[in-house]
Write a structure and sequence with these properties.
The protein contains 8 helices and 5 strands, in the order βαβααβααβααβα. By secondary structure, it is α/β, with parallel strands linked by helices. Strands 2-3-1-4-5 form a 5-stranded parallel sheet, with helices on both faces. Helix 1 packs across helix 8, helix 2 packs antiparallel against helix 3 and helix 4 runs antiparallel to helix 5. The chain is globular. Bound molecules: thymidine-5'-phosphate (TMP). The site of thymidine-5'-phosphate has 12 residues, from helix 4.
Length: 209
């Protein structure tokens, strides 16, 4: 059914996803691919509104289950309204985060049951999974330095979590990459941006039409 290619990029906050995805997208467009760059939570009007609620530091008391379901709600809208139509139109869809973020953050980070999260993810996506996932792996200490350099208005609700939280999220991601080594490829993100983007492009060579 899908003629296009669905890619996701994952990593802890400060791992360089957004910068490298932008550079990767530019290279793919230069090569003639029709791409669509999306972010989660977000990518739709509803999703961006849900994102504001999720990241608002005033909601420090948000229950983990409420958090999980809000991420899932934003994802359901994005999949149905944007990703499926774009794939059907043959586009290369690059998503800055997808279901693995929920397993790593709400599962390994917050401690929610991974099988329950998988069920919720399946409901939100109708079973759609990226064909390839690039995991940018970085030591949380280095990532935190990058975040300090970046923040203008202060950290959002999830950026403000502890270093121990980021360590659990990173370990969760690495465990997922081991379990799903057919789909998830890990890239060392402590290298200069152009090198990381070269590596991303090299991996995608096999997947791109
Ligand atoms: P971003 O800053 O990379 O755009 O992501 C927003 C934050 O939301 C980031 O701290 C990771 C977090 N997040 C989750 O906790 N679970 C999810 O399912 C997703 C998509 C993001």
């Amino acid at each position: 059914m899908n003629k296009g290619l669905f890619l996701s990029v994952e990593g802890i906050d400060g791992s360089g996803k957004t910068t490298t995805i932008g550079a990767l997208d530019k290279r793919l467009v230069d090569e003639g691919y029709r791409t669509l760059l999306l972010r989660e939570p977000g990518g739709t009007a509803i999703g961006e509104d849900v994102r504001r609620i999720l990241l608002d530091p005033r909601h420090a008391d948000m229950d983990p289950l409420c958090e999980l379901l809000l991420f899932a709600a934003a994802r359901a809208q994005l999949v149905a309204g944007v990703i499926r139509p774009a794939l059907a139109a043959g586009m290369v869809v690059i998503c800055d985060r997808f279901t693995d973020s929920t397993l790593a953050y709400q599962g390994s980070g917050r401690g929610l049951d991974l099988d329950m999260i998988r069920r919720v993810n399946r409901i939100a996506t109708g079973g759609l999974l990226p064909q390839r996932t690039l995991l940018l792996d970085l030591d949380p200490e280095l990532a935190a330095c990058r975040l300090v350099g970046r923040e203008g208005a202060g950290p959002d609700r999830i950026d403000a979590e502890s270093r121990a939280f980021a360590e659990r999220v990173r370990a969760g991601y690495l465990a997922l990459a081991r379990e799903e080594s057919d789909r998830i490829v890990t890239i060392a993100a402590d290298q200069p941006i152009p090198i990381v983007v070269d590596r991303m492009q090299e991996i995608l060579r096999e997947d791109l039409p």
